Amino acid sequence: MRKLRIKTLSRSIFILLLVALNIGCDQLSKSIVRQEVSYNDNIKIFSDHFTLMKVENTGAFLSLGSALPTSIKFLFLTLFPILAIALATYWLLVKTRVPYLIVIGSCFLIGGGIGNLFDRLLYGSVTDFLHIDFGVFQTGVFNLADVSIMFGMTLIVIQAYILNNLNRSQLVDH
Description:
Layout: H1 2-36, E1 43-46, E2 50-57, H2 70-94, H3 100-123, E3 126-134, E4 137-138, H4 144-173
Antiparallel strand pairs: 1-2, 2-3, 3-4
Helix pairs in contact: 1-3, 2-3, 3-4
């Protein structure tokens, strides 16, 4: 029984540390950009393909929802995300039989979500500053919280693909 408690506590600490690491990296990078980069700057990191610029995003992904009325924007971009993050965190801490990639992916999703929520609550907008342009492949301006969210989703999709293929092979084998 004691070993189970230690294992559960260790797992919870790992989850909270990974979420905090995601939040910390995101907030540190945004803080540096807010202090060191002007709004008109376009800093070339890797030729014209990878640039740094400061943009304040009052909407969600790719500024979606930025023109919504304030009350609707608050509901969809603040209140619902807070509820979703709280439920996801609770689920992750309570459910102990979750595949490893889903745990890691969820930590990245939660950390990225909290990083962007923190900006929205404190500043009224989210600071974005990275842009990739390889001709055919081009992104909007994004931040490290967005990278965390995309990485987390990728891990979850990979795990779902693995589980789906395992389930199919078990169906074929029986």
